[in-house]
């Protein structure tokens, strides 16, 4: 079978650093894979490799069975991405930004639909027509979530997506992820939030110095055990 | 293709939101319109002056008819009668004034030595001449590149520095499409401005609808595209906005200020032109010395040039006009070599600049536009040549009266030759300039494409 997201001996060597040493990973539809690890462990490099923003030194990343490096444009039909810090055109409103990015993704939504996506992502109705320049980080993050959801992608790549969100919004986001996973979306999330990883993840992976040192289903661990495991690997 | 147009349309919204750029673009539009007004009013002023000259000449004739109510000695008439050699502009001159402001566009002529009269011009404020003309060609050649730089210095680096690029490139959008759409919008904006300004200028100047319309448009469009190619090359380098701005303004300084300055110094040194002062002094010495030389010596030298008058009466009087004009004529003869060395030197300089102007597309564009408008140095030299031929014709008209002692009657004024000269466009120079511009633009564009392919766009 083809996995929605797959890495085969994925390796990235920077001039001064080996960022990723031979990652092997398969993620199926509906899975929520949470990648834990310290800063600089290689989480963002992995996501950038899946996005095609960075070329692998050896090995390959696959999205929906397509090799990322060989199909840089096509794979982006299948994935949605929420960076740690969603940045948008500040002079456009939240609605206009969502419209622009959705149209680039190939969707022409009516305004009412766009509003629904923003509302669903938790953006206050009064902010929809305001310029993004006036938004807080959390509000931009919510527009980023709306952009990702409206894309109806098979894979969601998330790089610490809940940073800047308050606990309530984070909670709503977890709920959203569960919904999407229920609809068959594969989620790959780099995070520092062990509690949330346990809560929404189906599997967690721990990364240390460019190496995936452990992968476990979350059902077999509670949050405390997961934290102990994490600390065990990072110390 | 659909993605391209979505991005293209989005660029319009980004542009509209950038108030500074909108202001700058409107300012350039206004400055362009002022340039058209400046050029048109300058050429209209010249045309008006030229139109008044026949009346002045007629007035002069009326005065002479009063002064000499009966038949007169043609020598007196030749001395007091002024006539004009006139240089009419092409309709294109108001778009590119070229040298029409510094070189005289008419010359007041009497039967006296030509060289002393040929270079006499109206006084020009040298400070004003230094800063040059503010015509449409100036706006297009010198100011438009700055607008293009202001529009393009953060072409991709804005999105990168704002962090928007990651989200953009996470969509099925290639960096090439993104850059192409951004460039295409700016090209459309600038070329729209160029076409509007050129159109207004052409309509106002009432240029005839011939091939030159296309040539002008091709030149200015290609020149703008050259600057877009430079902006693309710098964009492909993928540095910060600040770096891009400095690099682009640096290129502007080099191509628009430094290279022309250095070229001027080099050409002046490589093609020395004799000082006009030497010519003036030599001609004066010859003419003023003419009073003291034996008349037979002067006349024999003159008869060598005009053997048909050798059999005329020997001069015994203390003063006679034909002797006076003979040494005036010899004054011109004595400096002929200097005069042609001077014009040859100017022409050689012009040709050397034309050979080297591929070094700076700004000079190339300016030369080509001036050639098209017939306002360059060759046009002025052609006028001087025509004025010289006219002066020869005046001599040919007066000498038979003088040497055959024919009285000058009132009816003879109408027989005097008149002069008119209209400069012509030089499409050959303009076309070769277009060719060079095409090569420069192509070379920079290819370099940009190679660099763009060699350096994949990193969204972070």
From TrEMBL, chain B:
Membrane-crossing residues?
Answer: 20-39, 136-156, 188-207, 213-234, 246-267, 433-452
Assigned keywords, A-Z: Membrane, Transmembrane, Transmembrane helix
Which top-level group of life is the source organism from? Bacteria
Q: Does the keyword Metal-binding apply?
A: no
Cross-referenced InterPro entries: DUF3526 (IPR021913)
Name under which the protein is recorded? DUF3526 domain-containing protein
Query: What organism is listed for this UniProt entry?
Result: Hymenobacter fodinae
Per the UniProt record, the lineage of the source organism begins with: Bacteria, Pseudomonadati, Bacteroidota, Cytophagia, Cytophagales
